[in-house]
């Protein structure tokens, strides 16, 4: 399927436009080009008054006054044209997780439902690099996939009323880290000591759609140590960039 | 300075909203009834984005520890200053150490209390709008104090009620103007009739995140798509046929298809609707 011909621009009345690539499931390779178009729009649109540009999976959303839609569409066409052959700006993050059954209370039910041991679940979660498909649900929450087939499990039928910030969850083909305390229906397998969102900074999040994340296991000591680094602001996210990519 | 003796049912600080961070999952937030919020600044001669207190159903009791000028707009609500009733939509001067008591809403749901010159509060990501995970608190808590930014000059004395401001409408049946939503095309065309002919009852939840309508099984569906961006005023339809109208604190992405899209003005009107009311959609092109 041709990338350039398989998108649709839908007007969102009084809000802006949404650009949708409909046959995304059959063409997962579209994602990198969608992320390229998104990055291009974001860098070019700052010069005029577009209110918001965001993306998730196969969609880009642009909120702007209606008299700017035409201009957005011409930039969009240009971005789509240039998306072939250009690589997106992408960073690989290596994120520590403390996979502890005391903190992550869902292991016993997960072991039964997935027919895997805790050690196998942990190993499978670390076995892949995950693409960031977008940010949403909570401030700084990353939609990441695809999980190994063996880890696929539906949402909890009764969502937990309180999931702590930092909890690492899985559901369907996705994995994600809760960035603030929130109710939620994902199965929790660990905790991440690194903050994903800092509302006191003008650049509150360090990740972007198109970046890649992999997880590595840490023990309780390291988990506590990184938490102290975060609290004392000695922490630097740049230490978690993977240089090999 | 002002001090909250009681906070009322749910009082939060809101301005026009938080822009430029939607791509990071940050909802726009801001005053739900933007027109009444803006009126509060027009009446006081404030810059239009000066933050106000958004009051829900039952208002706060506040000690005014400094001479100041305030007004209340939006839902019709009881206001008393040192025991004497004062009108809505009016810039009122309060002497130092006055007690401002805002009672129950009579019509509508949300009122706005604002001060001439504004008050100091926490600003995060360029907005004072309170929201969980962004500001320290998501609402005003008891005993909170706020500094008023402007010293009131003695010259100010002669204020009048702004009679141009229309009162908040109250009707047991609200006609709400909507467009077809981004995912309208995923639903069968015959749905248009049941959408525009049905009277929907407002469910029990009408918070800052969403206004829930009671389930209508005719709208049930099996559409299962990747999560999508959401819009303020988007009408999502759950598989069981429950409609959720997204308000300004709703999350920026969501899984339910977006059946309809309210006009901006419909969102303002919707923020004044109560759980016992009913609504009918009027589809416009």
Strand residue percentage of chain B: 25-35%
| Strand/helix succession of chain A | EEHEEHEHHEEEEEEEEH
Shape verdict of chain B: elongated
**Oligomeric nature of the chains:** heterodimer
What does the average pLDDT of chain B come to?
93
Please identify the top-level CATH class of the largest domain in chain A. Mainly Beta
- List the total number of helices of chain B: 3
| Name given to the CATH homologous superfamily of the largest domain in chain A | Cyclophilin-like
Main pleated-sheet profile of chain A = 7 strands, mixed
**Sequence stretches where pLDDT stays below 50 over 5 or more residues of chain B:** none
**Structural class, from helix and strand content of chain A?**
alpha+beta
The Cα radius of gyration of chain B reads 20 Å
Strand content bin of chain A: 25-35%
The strands making up the biggest β-sheet of chain A line up spatially as 5-13-6-7-10-9-12
The main sheet of chain B comes to:
7 strands, mixed, barrel
Instruction: Please identify, by name, the CATH architecture of the largest domain in chain A.
Output: Beta Barrel
Biggest interface pair, counts: A-B, 38 and 30 residues
Low-pLDDT residue intervals, each spanning 5 or more residues of chain A: none
Class based on secondary structure composition and strand pairing of chain B: mainly beta
Number of helices of chain A: 5
Spatial separation of the terminal alpha carbons of chain A = 29 Å
Give an account of the 3D structure:
The complex is a heterodimer of chains A (245) and B (285). Chain A is globular and about 55 Å long. Chain A is built from five helices and 13 strands. In chain A, the strands form three sheets. Chain A has a seven-stranded mixed beta sheet with strand order 5-13-6-7-10-9-12. In chain A, strand 1 and strand 2 form a beta hairpin. Chain A has helices spanning 30-45, 69-82, 107-114, 118-126, 220-231; strands at 7-12, 16-21, 52-56, 59-63, 92-97, 130-135, 142-145, 160-163, 167-171, 174-177, 182-184, 187-191, 212-217. With 245 residues, chain A is of the alpha+beta class. Chain B has two domains: 2-146, no CATH class; 173-283, Cyclophilin-like (Cyclophilin, Beta Barrel). A seven-stranded mixed barrel of chain B has the order 12-19-16-17-14-13-20. A six-stranded antiparallel beta sheet of chain B has the order 7-6-9-4-1-11, with no helix packed on it. A five-stranded antiparallel beta sheet of chain B has the order 2-3-10-5-8, with helices on one face. Chain B is elongated. Classes of the chains: A alpha+beta (245), B mainly beta (285). Chains A and B meet through strand 3 and strand 4 of A and strand 15 and strand 18 of B.
């Amino acid at each position: 399927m041709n990338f350039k011909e398989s998108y649709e621009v839908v007007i969102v009345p009084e809000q802006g436009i949404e650009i949708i690539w409909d046959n995304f499931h059959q063409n997962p390779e579209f994602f990198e080009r969608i992320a390229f178009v998104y990055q291009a729009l974001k860098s070019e649109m700052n010069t005029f008054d577009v209110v918001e540009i965001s993306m998730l999976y196969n969609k880009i959303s642009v909120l702007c006054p209606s008299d700017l839609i035409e201009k957005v569409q011409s930039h969009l066409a240009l971005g789509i044209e240039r998306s072939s052959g250009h690589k997106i700006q992408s960073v690989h993050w290596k994120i520590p997780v403390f996979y502890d059954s005391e903190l992550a209370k869902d292991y016993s039910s997960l072991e039964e439902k997935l027919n895997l041991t805790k050690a196998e679940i942990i190993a499978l979660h670390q076995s892949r690099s995950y693409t960031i498909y977008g940010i949403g649900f909570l401030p700084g929450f990353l939609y990441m996939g695809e999980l190994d087939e063996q880890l696929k499990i539906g949402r909890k039928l009764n969502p937990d009323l309180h999931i702590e910030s930092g909890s690492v969850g899985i559901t369907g083909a996705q994995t994600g880290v809760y960035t603030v305390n929130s109710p939620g229906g994902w199965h929790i397998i660990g905790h991440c000591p690194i903050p994903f969102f800092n509302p006191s900074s003008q650049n509150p999040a360090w990740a972007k759609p198109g970046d890649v994340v992999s997880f590595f296991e840490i023990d309780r000591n390291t988990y506590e140590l990184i938490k102290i680094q975060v609290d004392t602001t000695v922490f630097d996210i740049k230490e978690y960039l993977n240089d090999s990519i | 300075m002002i001090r909250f003796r009681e906070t009322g049912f749910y009082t939060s600080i809101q301005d026009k909203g938080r822009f430029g961070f939607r791509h990071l999952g940050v909802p726009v937030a801001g005053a739900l009834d933007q027109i009444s919020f803006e009126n509060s600044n027009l009446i006081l001669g404030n810059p239009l984005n000066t933050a106000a207190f958004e009051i829900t159903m039952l208002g706060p009791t506040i000690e005014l520890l400094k001479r100041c000028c305030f007004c209340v707009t939006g839902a019709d609500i009881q206001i008393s200053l040192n025991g004497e009733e004062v009108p809505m939509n009016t810039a009122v001067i309060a002497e130092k150490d006055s007690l401002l008591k805002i009672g129950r809403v009579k019509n509508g749901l949300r009122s706005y209390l604002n001060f001439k010159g504004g008050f100091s509060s926490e600003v995060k990501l360029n907005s004072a709008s309170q929201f969980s995970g962004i500001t320290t608190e998501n609402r005003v808590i008891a005993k909170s104090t706020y500094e008023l930014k402007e010293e009131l000059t003695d010259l100010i004395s002669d204020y009048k009620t702004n009679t141009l401001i229309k009162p908040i409408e109250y009707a047991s049946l609200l006609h709400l103007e909507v467009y077809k939503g981004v995912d309208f095309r995923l639903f069968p065309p015959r749905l248009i009739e049941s959408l525009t002919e049905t009277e929907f009852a407002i469910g029990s939840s009408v918070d800052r995140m969403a206004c829930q309508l009671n389930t209508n099984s005719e709208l049930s569906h099996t559409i299962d798509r990747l999560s999508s961006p959401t819009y303020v005023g988007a009408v999502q339809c759950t598989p069981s046929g429950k409609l959720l109208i997204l308000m300004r604190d709703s999350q920026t992405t969501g899984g339910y298809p977006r059946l309809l899209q309210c006009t901006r003005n419909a969102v303002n009107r919707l923020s004044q609707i109560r759980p016992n009311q009913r609504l009918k959609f009027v589809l416009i092109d």
